[in-house]
Amino acid sequence: MAKVPTDVKQPTKEPTVTDEQLNAAADLLLTQLPDHAGELVHILQGEYQVQLWHLLCGIMLAMHQEGRLSAFTLDPAWRDGLRQRMLKCHECNKLFKPHNIGQKFCTNTCGNINEARKLDLNEKDTQNDTYTDSVPNKPESVDSEPSPNNVDPVIATDGTGNWVEAGSLLLDS
After folding, report:
1. What is the DSSP string of 156-168?
2. What parts of the chain have a pLDDT lower than 50?
3. Is 52 buried (19+), middle (13-18) or exposed (0-12) by CB count in 10 A?
């Protein structure tokens, strides 16, 4: 009787993965892209009548064949984890569905209100720091009537059609 070696690995049966599972995984990946990108892939899937995961892999294969697979773009928000379906607005605390990865506000209005508040606080801090610099060291003298010597040169006509400095008109009269 032949002896079977015990250290030889027996072939294991690979788990069966279905198209439905791969399509669900592809859909989950597409939810992490900006809405317009995921929507475009879904539109293409409908037009070409192919499995979603086939299309997604086909896009990656085309990028590889074009030499662009190593020229990828990473969204910094991906470090924070999966894109959430519903978020709480950082301004009004209302729940909303984000349109962009990393979106913090439900509307531009809430984002603008928050930004205005930040600018207002920064402006107040800056004003407090520079207030002493803007106070004049000596009082300015105020004349009751403007003096011809203090008039900025302005070009005017002297009545004969000649152009002259307006200050000289005051001195001539």
Report:
1. EE-SSS-EEEHHH
2. 138-144, 151, 173
3. buried
